[in-house]
């Protein structure tokens, strides 16, 4: 609503006081937004810096804009959250990645879980990853993120456990926790976050985790958490996690 | 995952020690779940009571089951949250209603906002409301709710303001709050909730609220809140609200 459109530009297209905008972004500016010379937009540098720029030239499908004002934005979650999502059916992973980006996730890992019905071959995976990289870019622009989340190649459990060595906090959403009376509340974990912690959140596919997976995750220090007392669908669980982390660290600060 | 399927049955189909299951539910039991005599399921009474029942008879498309054990479930949000969602484009309202039900909303109001592009005529509305009532029933069963959320007929701003007299807390998600440095944190409002409060949450459509709407909402004691520092899409905002309320009241309890 009356807000400037945002574009993520590669480092090499920033020149002193100007930015050069090419390809799809230039097309979007001239054809979709119908911007003209003297219109303003926001450009994001890969180093998470952003600036208000004013268009000075439009020629041969290239837009040139002058940097007018560097912005001091602080819109990234204070912790670095990665969602490892058990491959779900249909286009649910699109939804998780789009909404997860709006809610502040820093990266996504498509996780080939025991009960994932969908199987990816190499060709399918490449197409999917391309698609997800477009979704995170668009969702980052729309939600005014200053960083575009990373899409990892898909991982099986062994690869995920290896990757998990890079994280300070590891949790998994375990619906058995929601059903019992003896459970670990998600807030107990969030309260122990430190600034800039890397947090890995593993979510099962439609059928949940297999017992083998639960055992392996626990052995590797993944903490099972409850996400409220209701049973959430696989694609709803990561949104609950991200909204709660945002609420706790950005709104509540307790 | 190895959990009993749940069915919401009308009060008149509960007879002493037995329940009678008809129509779509009976079809689901016999054809989709392929249940047989002696299989178990969970039946919910409209008074929010639920029981494990065992099938004793299947005949002429009717299933009869014996009540074996009344359950003591507590899965409803401690406050009564209504989402008034500005009519969004496409099938986004399906998503809000399905996910909102999983996340504990008690009712939904389709809100005809100034900037809603979609218009509903009477015939379209009836079809839509039927569809939403099916979605809330299925999502309630899937997420183990003990109450099915209510779908209100659509309302314009005047009707919404009139309806709002029935609520103790009224808020609206205002993206201008996310952009400024002087904003009301959502947690300030949640901290003031009392048990069983009725909370009305108004969300704008894709284009946000019009300035007229913002003024009218404020005049009628709707509090503008920020939902984290990122800009959320219209269909993501209610999920943030519900997840945060669940997190605060059910997981954090602070």
From TrEMBL, chains A, B:
<dbReference type="Pfam" id="PF20260">
    <property type="entry name" value="PUA_4"/>
</dbReference>
<comment type="similarity">
    <text>Belongs to the RNA methyltransferase RsmE family.</text>
</comment>
<keyword id="KW-0963">Cytoplasm</keyword>
<dbReference type="GO" id="GO:0008168">
    <property type="term" value="F:methyltransferase activity"/>
</dbReference>
<feature type="domain" description="Ribosomal RNA small subunit methyltransferase E methyltransferase">
    <location>
        <begin position="76"/>
        <end position="245"/>
    </location>
</feature>
<keyword id="KW-0698">rRNA processing</keyword>
<dbReference type="Pfam" id="PF04452">
    <property type="entry name" value="Methyltrans_RNA"/>
</dbReference>
<dbReference type="InterPro" id="IPR006700">
    <property type="entry name" value="RsmE"/>
</dbReference>
<protein>
    <recommendedName>
        <fullName>Ribosomal RNA small subunit methyltransferase E</fullName>
        <ecNumber>2.1.1.193</ecNumber>
    </recommendedName>
</protein>
<keyword id="KW-0949">S-adenosyl-L-methionine</keyword>
<dbReference type="InterPro" id="IPR029026">
    <property type="entry name" value="tRNA_m1G_MTases_N"/>
</dbReference>
<dbReference type="InterPro" id="IPR046887">
    <property type="entry name" value="RsmE_PUA-like"/>
</dbReference>
<dbReference type="InterPro" id="IPR046886">
    <property type="entry name" value="RsmE_MTase_dom"/>
</dbReference>
<dbReference type="InterPro" id="IPR015947">
    <property type="entry name" value="PUA-like_sf"/>
</dbReference>
<dbReference type="GO" id="GO:0032259">
    <property type="term" value="P:methylation"/>
</dbReference>
<keyword id="KW-0489">Methyltransferase</keyword>
<comment type="function">
    <text>Specifically methylates the N3 position of the uracil ring of uridine 1498 (m3U1498) in 16S rRNA. Acts on the fully assembled 30S ribosomal subunit.</text>
</comment>
<dbReference type="InterPro" id="IPR029028">
    <property type="entry name" value="Alpha/beta_knot_MTases"/>
</dbReference>
<feature type="domain" description="Ribosomal RNA small subunit methyltransferase E PUA-like">
    <location>
        <begin position="21"/>
        <end position="68"/>
    </location>
</feature>
<keyword id="KW-0808">Transferase</keyword>
């Amino acid at each position: 609503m009356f807000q400037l459109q945002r574009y993520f530009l590669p480092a090499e297209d920033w020149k002193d006081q100007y930015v050069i905008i090419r390809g799809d972004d230039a097309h979007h500016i001239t054809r979709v937004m119908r911007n003209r010379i003297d219109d303003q937009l926001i450009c994001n540098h890969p180093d998470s810096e952003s600036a208000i720029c004013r268009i000075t030239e439009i020629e041969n499908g290239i837009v040139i804009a002058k940097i007018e004002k560097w912005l001091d934005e602080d819109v990234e979650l204070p912790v670095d959250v990665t969602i490892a999502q058990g491959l779900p059916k249909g286009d649910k992973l699109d939804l998780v990645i789009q909404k997860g980006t709006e809610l502040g996730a820093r990266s996504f890992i498509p996780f080939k879980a025991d009960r994932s019905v969908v199987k990816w071959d190499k060709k399918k995976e490449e197409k999917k990853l391309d698609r997800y990289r477009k979704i995170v870019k668009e969702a980052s622009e729309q939600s005014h993120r200053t960083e575009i989340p990373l899409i990892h190649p898909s991982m099986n459990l062994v690869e995920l456990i290896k990757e998990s060595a890079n994280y300070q906090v590891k949790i998994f959403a375990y619906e058995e926790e929601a059903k019992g009376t003896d459970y670990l509340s998600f807030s107990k974990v969030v309260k122990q976050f430190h600034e800039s912690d890397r947090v890995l959140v593993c979510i099962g596919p439609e059928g949940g985790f297999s017992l083998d997976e639960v055992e392996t995750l626990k052995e590797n220090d993944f903490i099972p958490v409850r996400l409220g007392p209701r049973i959430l669908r696989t694609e709803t669980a990561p949104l609950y996690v991200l909204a709660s982390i945002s609420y706790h660290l950005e709104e509540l600060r307790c």
